[in-house]
Amino acid sequence: MYEFNYHRPASLAEAKEILAANDEAKIVAGGMTLLPTMKMRLAQPSDLIDLSAIEGLDGIKDTGSAIEIGAMTRHADVASSDVVKAAIPALAKLADSIGDAQVRNRGTLGGSIANSDPAADYPAAVLGLGATIRTDQREISADDYFLGMFETALAADELVVAVSFPKPKKAAYAKFPNPASRYAVVGVMVADTDSGLRVAVTGAGACAYRATAFEEALSSSLSAEALEGLTTDSADLNSDLHASAEYRAHLVGVMAKRAVQSLGG
After folding, report:
1. Measured CA distances, 241 to 148, 178, 245, 248, 260 (Å)
2. 164: Cβ contacts below 8 Å, ≥ 6 apart
3. Please, which residues have CB within 8 angstroms of residue 56's CB and are 6 or more apart in sequence?
4. What is the C-alpha to C-alpha distance for residues 35 and 2, in angstroms, rounded to an integer?
5. Alpha-carbon radius of gyration of the chain
6. 139-141, strands of its sheet edge to edge
7. Would you tell me which of 49, 116, 138, 186 could form a disulfide with 251, CB atoms 3.0–4.6 Å apart?
8. Residue-by-residue pLDDT tens, the chain, 265 positions
9. Where are the domains of the chain?
10. Which fold has domain 60-166?
11. Fold equal for 60-166 and 170-261
12. In the chain, what is the straight-line distance between the N-terminal and C-terminal CA atoms, in Å?
C-alpha cells in the first residue's frame, strides 16, 4: 500500500472541502473495494476521506410510500431491519446475500452504488425497484444513474446521501453467486411496482440494466412460464474466468424465472 493522508471529517461540507483541495483524493465509505485495491497497489490516492464520522448519513426510515436508507447504512443493518423486512423483504434478503458477515458489517449501501461494481447486488435493487438516489446536490432516478462499468451519473464532487426505495406490490431477487466472493455472477430483481413490472439484471453486463423484453412478457402474465422462449443476447455481456458471456446470458433467464417463482415469498 502506498502512503496517503487520512481524513475523518465531521460534516459533508468539510469532506467536500478536502475533496476539492486534493485532485487525487478518494472517498471511503465501507472500504470493501477501495482498501483491497490499495493493498494490491492498484490504486494510489493521495488522500482518503472517511465518511464514517458524519452524522445523519446512516439509518432507515419508512416515509409512507418508500423506504429511505442512508448512504452509510451497513448491509447487515438493511438485512436485519424490521422496517425493510415488513415493506420490501426482497431488499432485506438481497442485503443478507452480500459477501460474508465481515463484508456485511463494514460495507455500505452508498459505497456499493457509488462504486458501481458490475457484479454488486445493490444495483439490481436500485434499478429493479425504481429507486431515487439522493446526493448532496440533487436527486437522480435509478434509470439515469448506472452508466457503465464503475461509472455512474455522479459528478466528481458529488456524494450520495441516501437512497429512497418505493414500496413495490411484491418483489424478489435471485442470484447465482460466485462461491468464493458471493458476488453475483448473475442476479435478477423482479418487482411489481405502481409504475409497472421492472426486471433488473446485475453481474451479467458492464453495469446493472433493465431487461425490457422480460418486463413486457411478465406484464402480460406474471409467471415463470411467460419467460419461456426468451433469450438474452450475449454480445455485450461479461466473459471472465468465472463464466462466459454465453453462460451469463443463460443465467439471466434462469434467475429471472426463479425470482418470479418466489415473488411474494
Report:
1. 20, 11, 11, 12, 29
2. 63, 66, 67, 68, 69, 131, 132, 134
3. 70
4. 11
5. 18
6. 60-62, 66-70, 160-166, 132-135, 139-141
7. 186
8. 899 999 999 999 999 999 999 989 999 999 988 999 999 999 999 999 999 999 999 999 999 999 999 999 999 999 999 999 999 999 999 999 999 999 999 999 999 999 999 999 999 999 999 999 999 999 999 999 999 999 999 999 999 999 999 999 999 999 999 999 999 999 999 999 999 999 999 999 999 999 999 999 999 999 999 999 999 999 999 999 999 999 999 999 999 999 999 995 4
9. 5-50, 60-166, 170-261
10. 3.30.465
11. no
12. 45
Is the CB of residue 203 less than 8 Å from the CB of residue 211? no
Instruction: Report which DSSP code applies to 128.
Output: H
Return the CATH architecture of domain 5-50.
2-Layer Sandwich (3.30)
Distances (CA, A) of 24 to 21, 43, 156, 157, 261: 9, 10, 11, 12, 47
What are the grid coordinates assigned to 164, written together?
429512497
Task: Return d(Cα 30, Cα 234) in angstroms, integer.
Answer: 33
pTM above 0.85, yes or no: yes
Query: What is the rounded CA–CA span in Å between residue 243 and residue 196?
Result: 31
